[in-house]
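Support case: user asked for a sample of complex input and structure output to validate their parser. Sending the pair below.
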Amino acid sequence: MLTQAAQTWHVHTSIMDPDPNAPARALCNEFTQGSLQDPDAVVAFGTGKDLLSIEIENVSVEGLTTLQERGVQIHPSPDALQTIQDKGKQKEFYASHNLPSAPFHLYEDKASVLAAIDHATLTVPFVQKARRDGYDGRGVVVVRTRQDLDGLLDQPCLVENLVEIRSELSVIAARNPSGQISVFPPVEMVFNPEANLVEMLVSPASITPSLQVKARQLATATIEAFGLCGLLAVEMFLDPSENLWINEVAPRPHNSGHHTLASTFTSQYEQHLRAIFDLPLGSTDSKVCAAMVNILGAKGYEGTPVYEGVEECLKIDGCSIHIYGKQQTRPFRKMGHATLIDQDQVRVLEKAHRVQEKLKVTS
Amino acid sequence: MLTQAAQTWHVHTSIMDPDPNAPARALCNEFTQGSLQDPDAVVAFGTGKDLLSIEIENVSVEGLTTLQERGVQIHPSPDALQTIQDKGKQKEFYASHNLPSAPFHLYEDKASVLAAIDHATLTVPFVQKARRDGYDGRGVVVVRTRQDLDGLLDQPCLVENLVEIRSELSVIAARNPSGQISVFPPVEMVFNPEANLVEMLVSPASITPSLQVKARQLATATIEAFGLCGLLAVEMFLDPSENLWINEVAPRPHNSGHHTLASTFTSQYEQHLRAIFDLPLGSTDSKVCAAMVNILGAKGYEGTPVYEGVEECLKIDGCSIHIYGKQQTRPFRKMGHATLIDQDQVRVLEKAHRVQEKLKVTS
């Protein structure tokens, strides 16, 4: 979707992706297959380019830093990316910048977490998060009772207090090298409790205007603290006392901004380009209310995907469907998403629920 | 923009274009360079495809008919395309289907037009249109006085009465093989008098609700008469007595629908795909008011284009800019377009005028 936005300005785009069948392959001028974690591959790809950006955090910082030293513009900066890639460093960053995030401790492995419990320096309940490579529900363990301790991850991790969550919000901010900042309306995310990934998202979030302002201010403070250029999706918890806590951030176009293609004056993709090209940022006003439903692989099905109920969904006014073209489905795999729009927030939710009922990815 | 919509559904797309540097090349799965007027090239390209559509009228009907006979789905149908390609046949079609269009006569060449004037069977003023290959102001001669007769085209043509024009409208209709029809809000086109091409477009048109209905009904009747599947842009004249006259039609995504990407629930591109795939048509409701400004090459400049004023324009809330990436500019050449959106119709016009002032393509 980012390359589509780039095409609108006739920008020459080159993509590097480990998957030779990456969907973006058909949408760019030049495609390179390669490992994003391999510094040499990243340097080889980036050499001679004017500007590099990312759509996934897990890219070799070493490679990007080398390119930056050689004069290639990199947004977001390798420095910020390094902090964000390591959730432990991310938490330390929030603490040192007075950005609210749940109290935490770092541990080396499962044994040191268990030892802390034995020494009563750590008490159940808590959340364990792998410091690296967590994604879409992987790398997070919620320990509610001592029975859950068996499932602890055995790797460098952080453990944080369970925040009592009234809702989970995401606020996407953009910043350009001139320092201009612009923030999209806060959205509310509804998680699938079983898979721990976003099942549905509603924009704007149904929170009070003063909380909307507070959430936007927190996103602004966060992108300013990182000093990065491009987009920063700031995921937050709202607790019952109406405090906001940063959960984590993503320095790129984000799942919680897909709906902006249909519902805001400027899409997150165009905004990312405006930001990294140091162009004036676009308006983030809403045209309509929106909901986004992730199309997840149904439980009990694996193999070549079959999309059931698509025609029924397309009969819903304001329903657009995005199919990612993944060749295999499996339970809870993200296979696409549907965007619903309406002038009315209640109706948009009704539409989203209808899509959830009708659309099913089997095999 | 059509292939971008197709990509959203992960549809495998193949493009044929005479220009090896066609912008769509980077946006499709497979690209073939070839002449769209060469029947053999069209047949070679279409063989083995599931479904073919067009984005320009001037495609070999002979080639498409051969493919259709061999079982390839073609939308719009070669039959309808044949009628539309020839403006003489188009006019005869309207007459025989009781669709309102200005009275006309067909002539073989310049001499026969002049002879008709000598014999007083034709009187100045009138409009002469080439039967074939007119596009973007080419192939149309407005004869207001006898001095204009020197400029007559010397080719098979039609001559029609000058309709007194209060405004020019375009209404895009869509129809799928199941017979469902859906119509976008009528838009008003403002022409550059010098170049005879659309300079600005406003959606919705500032006409009374009853005229909106009448214009939609005429578009519906027209696409039904052609029986074609896909989009049909119906360009109409509104005269001072509030009569509507069909000027001409285009059976494809149309310049007068660019703004739908930003302003309607479903874009014309997605609607075209829904129509040719026989899927339920999407809502054509407006999210916001829109204007589209064609970015034309400035007078007095030819060569590698330089786009002046882009940053100023991007500061306007709701301004998105599309650059087509053409390698050469020349006076009045369409180099891109800007879309402006706003909740308010007066403000959207103000924004459009600001873009017209600021944006200039020089060399």
